[in-house]
Design a protein that fits this description.
alpha+beta; Zincin-like; two-stranded antiparallel ribbon; 4 helices; 5 strands; about 55% helix; about 15% strand
Length: about 140
Amino acid sequence: MELKELGKKVMEISLISTLGLASAILCRTLQSLNEFSLNRINSEKELQMILKERAEKIGLDYSKISISFRKRYGSTTRNVPNGYYIEINRGCPVKDLDHELYHIFKKDPDKKQKSLLNYLLIEEPRATLYETFGVKI
């Protein structure tokens, strides 16, 4: 490999690393700001009611989405037979549910090949933009 080619590769890797880091910092900052939201999900009844309302708002069939409160910190979405399963924290902001629903809307859990770069640079930032501003990308 020539020195010029090596220099190009180093620059590409540096750029991707910088974009990934900047994206992660921006997402975490916006998600932290969303924690100040007063609209929180505290009961099973609220959870089901808000799921129906928010899923319909984004254009999803809520009957294909199961949801429950999670015992650990954080939220997650995954495929299950005939739909999706979301786990979120009791007392979390409604925006956390919006974030997970946007992953479903964009079919992120359906992907067979998971790529860390795709997750950091595309999936998380666009779900965070929807969660924060209601912007669909």
